[in-house]
Design brief:
This protein is an alpha+beta fold. Helix content is 27%, strand content 27%. A hairpin with a 5-residue loop joins β16 and β17 (306-308).
């Protein structure tokens, strides 16, 4: 595919497609009937609403259900770090500014921060003023300053909930769900290396100390009826969308800059959208493509028309490099975490 900065301009026009959509059918590495482990979630404050564990919604009278395997937020957290220059031999790192915060002995990238440009770790650094100005510009319909500091926040969404309240939606979403799952339970028994109490190595514990003994591995500890994974009788499906309609709402201070901004963010979004993520989600959950059900990649138009898309990841990356050069990637920043700003931030909310 010939690469130039105008090749995807039809996606930026008001009459262009509403979105791009990818649908992939997955299965456990053990096979279609293999056991896999979805994400688990803490209980709601009212346990009658959600008792904790797997997020499974049941519907209908025939026992149908939908199980959330990996959420939108989790998928974003798996994809966004590709832009960290320390990953993938820097293959994607030149597309975006590398913003890091020295927090104690650790260097934290903005790509690791849960709230991206709105996260406490960047807010409590010398980036605070620049980011506050950038978010205020967003409120005035100018996304250019934020794109120069944290462009992936425009791709994966950001909310400056602790300060200006500026909010940008996710352009790209990806979710993995399984249909009609059967839940399993598992049990285990921990046996200590020796009988510490019986051998006189430790005193007989009272109830309080018994918990401490169990926590430190000095007595037998049973674990029964815990989450044992699920088997999907229906599909396991990854659905991803790239909202071109939302992308077209991103503006800069003038028309020429708006075009450059939209092309740049589109390049980053296409690169992230076409990136093949690892199937390993967590212990016991390693999913691969199901060869019996083909992957679909389509343009979705406002009238419902769906047209196949022939776009490879390398095509997207080539375009992203071109538009990033034309846009002018922001400068790298490495700043220390500022305790004074953090304490002032805490006091401001008292």
């Amino acid at each position: 595919m010939t690469t130039d900065v105008t090749q995807f301009d039809h996606y930026l026009k008001d009459d262009g497609p509403a979105a791009l959509a990818i649908r992939e059918y997955l299965m456990p590495v053990e096979g279609p009937d293999g056991v896999f482990f979805p994400a688990t979630y803490a209980a709601a404050e009212d346990r009658r609403v959600f008792a904790g564990g797997y997020n499974i919604d049941s519907y209908g009278e025939n026992g149908n259900n939908i199980c959330l395997v990996d959420s939108v937020g989790s998928q974003a957290n798996r994809i966004e770090p590709i832009f960290d220059r320390r990953n993938f031999e820097g293959k994607y790192g030149e597309l975006v500014p590398q913003v890091t915060v020295q927090a104690g002995e650790r260097i934290v990238s903005i790509f690791e921060a849960g709230h991206r440009a709105g996260d406490a770790i960047v807010r409590c650094s010398e980036l605070q003023a620049d980011l506050q100005a950038a978010f205020k510009a967003v409120l005035n319909r100018d996304c250019l300053p934020l794109a120069k500091i944290a462009p992936t926040s425009l791709v994966f969404g950001v909310w400056d909930s602790r300060d200006t309240q500026a909010k940008l939606p996710r352009l790209m979403t990806s979710t993995i769900r399984a249909f009609n799952v059967r839940q399993l339970k598992r049990s285990a028994q921990y046996n200590p290396a020796t009988e510490y109490v019986a051998q006189g190595l430790l005193a007989e514990p009272d109830k309080k100390m018994k918990d401490a003994y169990a926590e430190r591995g000095f007595i037998h500890v049973p674990a029964t009826g815990t989450h044992g994974g699920v088997i999907a009788d229906g599909d396991i499906r990854r659905d991803a969308t790239l909202s071109l309609s939302a992308l077209r709402l991103l503006q800069a201070s003038d028309g020429k800059q708006t075009v450059k901004l939209q092309r740049y963010i589109l390049g980053l979004a296409l690169t992230a959208f076409t990136f093949v993520t690892s199937g390993y989600l967590r212990a016991g959950c390693n999913l691969v493509l199901n060869p019996d059900k083909p992957r679909s990649f389509v343009e979705v138009h406002g009238n419902g028309t769906r047209n196949p898309v022939d776009l490879t990841h390398e095509d997207a990356l080539g375009y992203a490099n071109k538009v990033a050069e034309a846009f002018g990637v922001g400068e790298d920043r490495n700043v220390p975490f500022d305790k004074k700003r953090a304490n002032a931030d805490l006091k401001s909310k008292k």
